[in-house]
Design brief:
By secondary structure, the protein is α/β, with parallel strands linked by helices. It has 15 helices and 20 strands. The strands form five sheets. The protein has a seven-stranded mixed sheet with strand order 14-15-16-13-12-17-18, with helices on both faces. Strands 9-8-7-10-11-19 form a six-stranded mixed sheet, with helices on both faces. A three-stranded antiparallel sheet has the order 5-6-20, with no helix packed on it. α2 packs across α6, α3 packs antiparallel against α6 and α4 packs parallel to α5.
Length: 470
């Protein structure tokens, strides 16, 4: 284990394949940059198609024995992995802060804390899930899909890894992970935790690299039975097309443009405060963020004032975006909003600091549903306030994008909010500020993806069904 004096993880110069750190086949590297000061943190190998092939072969070799391992033993090893993540919690948080830019308290609570909870949930599910059942004169078995190619994004680097690896291991699958190139240090740290937990060689493998090279090689590899990808809808389409040509299973968690619907009876001050916090969380780099706030016209002006005041508090509290490309992209969307006639009431496109990839917490009023900032995923701390006239109008606006990942509804009582939420075309809706549940299925409708993560529904993505008749 390598560790910097400030607790951050230092880069390894190899790939974790077949239970050991191995040199990369190529000489190219990826420089990891601290987005807060734009200074290099270290370098990791840029994996090649040959590295991917070696990792997939290791996973295929390990598959029969791991698939035959009793669920209770798999559960114990996943539990040991959770314990190693707990032991490294401070290191995880410091590393995520360094390579993603998340403020340390948020990194400790969310980037480290949530994956630990999810990993623990799969240790329990592996031990308790019914992997066989009697159905009339048949016995139905749930068996592992096989080798999983997991491709994860940078915005929640450990959470997205655990969301895929833990259920895959619980199901009896083996895994090859290709993490995002912006946050590979967290992935290397996870690989060390896997090794320390005693997971058998070849069951989990890590290849760092670029998406068009290592990621594409993994998605196309004939030895991969399922590709689990989280990222942009555009890349998800390409992976889906590749998998379809090979009749290969996919799980896709893609973009979002989620609506936060505040019904007239709601506690407006609370709904706006929580809604603004949701958008600013992780510097807006959250696919499920409620980036469209829908407010009845009678209370719209009051909501704008509340949101403007709330956003002003986040200036010194949010971290940078992950890289210069994302910073430019988000600032471009802000400029587009102004050009299309939205009213800027907080923030703006100007960089708040001379150094680092920071963007001002931004709020737009007088946004109409057809505007670019109301239709496209911005992936930054940008909120659009949209007025509606009645519930049917609110529903039309809420459902009026190609996405359907998440959302929220606020009302005087839960029943009123639930009645509206049931008509929304989206995979997950928080009712009156309902909290995160690591056992609840997460995933999208429409172009927000295919499949579900978390809990038993997430486990089922990595299982296939066989029935024997007697």
């Amino acid at each position: 284990m390598y560790k910097a004096p400030d607790g951050r993880y230092e880069a390894r110069d190899g790939m974790y394949i077949d239970g050991a750190w191995r040199p990369a086949t190529g000489a190219d590297t990826i420089t990891v940059v601290d987005p807060a000061d734009e200074q290099p943190l270290g370098q990791v190998p840029a994996g090649t198609a040959e590295d991917i092939d070696t990792a997939v072969r290791a996973a295929r070799t390990a598959l029969p024995r791991w698939a035959a391992t009793p669920p209770a033993e798999r559960a114990a090893l996943i539990g040991a992995l959770r314990d190693r993540l707990v032991a490294r919690k401070d290191e995880i948080a410091a590393t995520v802060t360094a390579e993603l830019g998340a403020p340390l308290p948020f990194a400790q609570a969310v980037h480290a804390g949530v994956p630990i909870a999810v990993c623990g949930s799969y240790a329990e599910l592996a031990a308790t899930h019914p992997f066989e059942e009697k159905v009339g004169n048949s016995t139905v078995y749930l068996e592992p899909v096989g080798v999983v190619g997991a491709i994860t994004p940078w915005n929640y680097p450990l959470h997205q890894i655990v969301n895929k690896v833990a259920p895959a291991l619980a199901a009896g699958c083996t895994v090859v992970l290709k993490p995002a190139e912006d946050t590979p240090l967290t992935a290397q740290l996870f690989a060390e935790a896997v090794h320390e937990a005693g997971v058998p060689a070849g069951v989990f493998n890590l290849v760092t690299g670029l998406g068009p090279v290592a990621g594409q090689a993994l998605a196309e590899h004939e030895g991969v039975d399922l590709v689990s990808f989280t990222g942009s809808t555009a890349v998800g389409r390409r992976i889906g097309a590749t998998a379809g040509a090979a009749v290969k299973r996919v799980a896709l968690e893609l973009g979002g443009k989620s609506a936060n619907v505040i019904l007239p009876s709601a506690d407006l001050a609370k709904a706006v405060a929580v809604g603004v916090a949701n958008v600013m969380s992780n510097s807006g780099q959250t696919c499920s963020a409620w980036t469209r706030m829908l407010v009845h016209s009678d209370r719209y002006d009051e909501a704008v004032e509340l949101a403007t005041a709330a956003a002003a508090k986040y200036g010194p509290r949010i971290g940078p975006l992950v890289n210069a490309k994302q910073q430019a992209r988000v600032r471009g969307y802000i400029e587009k909003g102004v050009e299309e006639g939205a009213r800027l009431v907080a923030g703006g496109p100007e960089a708040p600091k001379d150094q680092g990839y920071f963007v001002r917490p931004t709020v737009f009023a007088d946004v109409t549903p057809e505007m670019t900032i109301a239709q496209e995923e911005i992936f930054g701390p940008v909120l659009s306030l949209i007025r509606y006239e009645d519930e049917d109008d609110a529903l039309r606006i809420a459902n009026g994008t190609v996405y359907g990942l998440a959302g929220a509804v606020w009302a005087a009582d839960d029943a009123e909010a639930v009645a509206f939420a049931r008509r929304m075309d989206t995979g997950q809706v928080d009712i009156n500020g309902g909290g995160f549940n690591p056992l609840a299925p997460f995933g999208g409708y429409k172009q927000s993806g295919v499949g579900r993560e978390l809990g038993a529904h997430g486990l089922m993505e990595y299982l296939q069904t066989k029935s024997l008749q007697f």
